[in-house]
Amino acid sequence: MRINPNLANINEKYLYLLQLDLTEENLEKFKNVRYVIMQGSSKRAAVLAKKLAKDLLNMDTRFFEPVNLVDTSNFAVYRIGNVLSVSHGMGNVTIDALLHSLTKLLHYAGNNEVEYIRVGTSGGIGVEPGTVVITKNAYMPDLSPYYTTYELDKRIDIPTALNHSLVNRIVAAQPADLPFNIVVGNSIAADDFYLGQCRYDGAMNSRQSHEWRAKFFDKIHRLDICNFEMESSALAAFCNLAQIPATMIAVTLLNRFNGDQVTATPEQLAEYSDRSQSVVINYMRTRGDAV
Ligand code: R2B
Ligand code: URA
């Protein structure tokens, strides 16, 4: 892990975005962390923590509720063995806030070897709904392999390749009889769910024609882009700067070639989310240092 050298001089006492005092007692809770699994929703982060407790620690989870280690309504952080299950909210902006705060916390607690994996949902491009995509490279919507952001008025471009060795390890950890499709490909992180992904079902309509959109989808499909979501480029850029191996495991809820609306039932959606969680749990099972 590479960290801002200024942190050595500022004697930080409180992580505002996590509402966490940096006392020895609190830092103790974050020592020896090896894996951080991030999902949009705090509820899903708690569900995964419970599954990890059952699968990695053999706990009887009928009698166990994971404890949220931070006191903010923006994010949740649970710990199982050496794994943190956290929530990051929606979009590059919120995951970026989480990444800075959590990485500082892990640094202050003495960790420097961690892996970050986002587990989530996405809109598929040319893949069956329910397919789990593991991302090699994240792209901006204009297809540049850089996360473009601003330091005040200064534009900065940060590479968005994810960690290919981590991708390969996750794939290798999956059993041959996985009951759903899994593909390795690339992802586009859009700035929002509706116009950013050229949907025609938002409260405001897209200005782009169906013909133009169909051609664009064809083009990105040929570039091995398998899904749209909203956080992979900030995740990749941050982890490249911080030298933290990272990737994303995201199930597709629909095939965007066939429409805009997510029509899966709540039961189907829950089952789809379980798929991406199973993929990361299978990976954790192969890691001797996860507990
Ligand atoms: C995928 O799904 C969410 C929007 O529904 C968003 O956080 C993302 O990246
Ligand atoms: N998440 C997205 O960002 N887009 C989709 O189409 C589905 C989930």
In which order are the strands of the major sheet placed? 6-11-10-7-12
Span between termini: 20 Å
- Find the CATH superfamily: Nucleoside phosphorylase domain
- Rg: 19 Å
| Count of separate structural domains | 1
Listing every helix as H and every strand as E from the N terminus to the C terminus, the arrangement reads HEEHEHEEHEEEEHEHEHEH
**Given the helix and strand composition, which structural class is it?**
alpha/beta
* Low-confidence blocks of residues: none
Describe the structure in brief:
With 291 residues, this protein is of the alpha/beta class. It has helices at 7-10, 24-28, 42-57, 92-108, 164-172, 210-222, 232-242, 266-285; strands spanning 14-15, 20-21, 35-39, 77-80, 83-87, 115-124, 132-139, 146-151, 154-159, 182-189, 225-229, 246-255.
